[in-house]
Amino acid sequence: MDKKEADVIRSDIERAIIGQKKQGKKIIGCFPLYPPVELFESMGLLPLTLWNLNASIHGLTESDKHVQNYSCGIARELVQFVLSGTGELLDGIFSYNACDTLRNLPEILALGNKDAGRNIPMLRMHLPQVNPSQVNPDEYLKNEIARLIEATENAFGTGFSEENFVITVKKYRRMRSLCLDAEQLVARGALSFGSFCSVVLANYALPVEEQIKHLEGLIAGKDTGNPPATTGVMVSGIMPPPAAVVKAMEKSNLCVAANDIGSLGRSYGYSPEITTDPGDYYAELFAKRRPCTTLLYQSDRRIQAFLDTVKRSRAKGVVFSGEKFCEYEYFEFPYLEKRLKEEGVPTLFLEFSVDDTDNVGAYSTRVEAFAEMLDKTDGGKEA
After folding, report:
1. How far apart are CA 209 and CA 298, in angstroms?
2. If both were cysteines, with which of 80, 107, 206, 250 could 57 make a disulfide (CB 3.0 to 4.6 Å apart)?
3. Residue of 297, 15, 292, 267 whose CA lies nearest to 135
4. 31: how many CB neighbours lie within 10 A of its CB?
5. What are the tens digits of pLDDT across the range 267-304?
6. Structural domains present in the chain
7. From the centroid of its chain, how far is CA 316?
8. Residue 331 class from Cβ within 10 Å (0-12 exposed, 13-18 middle, 19+ buried)?
9. What are the tens digits of pLDDT across the range 176-189?
């Protein structure tokens, strides 16, 4: 494949990264889902969360050499992105500990890059997964942040500035506030969930200033051509459903009254207070952020927080968007379904894998049936 052919099949994410590199940005690929993006961007790097990469890969040949096909699609796509030609777009990689699959990827990526002749710095941080009511993890985490700052300075020849950190934190607070504003428009039926997902996920590959502009544009141009959906549901999962399934939901008059999506609501749902100290900032962020299945220390408050959100949003049902082979989510789904049934809240479980997100006909039919059922019920009881 020559350069001209490669440019034609570049994904939107790849083109965004190339555009930033032309402006002198250094790109640090990050995983899992909640890296210290404010810190990296304040130090002159562009953090790219290696998530939602399906459109950026062309097959899984490199990934299949290193990762079993019964691993989640997120891990398989991540490895393919880094170890194929697209990996050359990265200037560094950052990771912290999460599920058993992702926590073992840094070594695979490091060896794969070495074999490909790429000398890419690998930065790591250990996030303490302890119950804060039993052990206070703050000092340990602050020390990890200090070590990460030093490693970043050494790897990229950059320096940490309290002033730049505060400026960047303020921008990320603005970005998250706009996400919450847009989320409320979605809940009221004034903005399509599909448009919202597209903008938020595309923003992962952009500097925070551009993220803000895109969100402001999304809010200013909110959908007005269609009557608002009236049946509110909550959507949960690591990733939102594929775009075609979201369209089927909206066509079936379902409105996303609340989202518990890892790459959406759980990511932007909380912003810490502004401070010059990154250690204090991230200690607060990881202590108070929206509970997530990937953060084991939050498991004690995860279920009740989930149920409270369902009640607060007055959702008539819950749609689970399951990432096949995601062990953390799959441990939780059955118990959540049981609790929701006790509360009279119907549920729909949809499972997606890296191989079948384009075959959405059956999913659309199930969405339509679920919407019809909800339309005949009120809070799980016959109207």
Report:
1. 31
2. 80
3. 297
4. 23
5. 999 999 999 999 999 999 999 999 999 898 898 899 99
6. 3-158 (3.40.50.11890), 228-382 (3.40.50.11900)
7. 25
8. exposed
9. 999 999 999 999 99
